[in-house]
Amino acid sequence: xxxxxxxxxxxxxxxxxxxxxxxxxxxxxxxxxxxxxxxxxxxxxxxxxxxxxxxxxxxxxxxxxxxxxxxxxxxxxxxxxxxxxxxxxxxxxxxxxxxxxxxxxxxxxxxxxxxxxxxxxxxxxxxxxxxxxxxxxxxxxxxxxxxxxxxxxxxxx
Length: 157
Description:
This protein is of the alpha+beta class. It contains four helices and eight strands. It has a single domain (4-156), classed as Gcn5-related N-acetyltransferase (GNAT) (Aminopeptidase, 3-Layer(aba) Sandwich).
């Protein structure tokens, strides 16, 4: 599938779609207002290097998103930065969009001079990340029992 990955700052037309998907995927069921998530996503629209959000799209069709943030797991404040909020529209999954988004997010963080990038995920996502060169460094972290992964520019941590 042909698609483009853009920095959200260059494609703000996708802002509402990304805010909505992030809210529905991770926050709605916890009672977090959609406006709060939109406010947090607005932080990605400033010229500062981090945070930033990426959008995968084909023309004006939204396909998916990923972000790079300073901190994504309050249980591990010593790790930074993080690839976070990786989400692909269900009808476009299994087409390498998520892989490309994660790779681009990590690559952009490395281009900013970071020597390590982290992410956290549920156990059922382990293979998705390890086959991309992410190495698990901690298991069962926090109340959601997430796995923490690391990636360095040359491959696993």
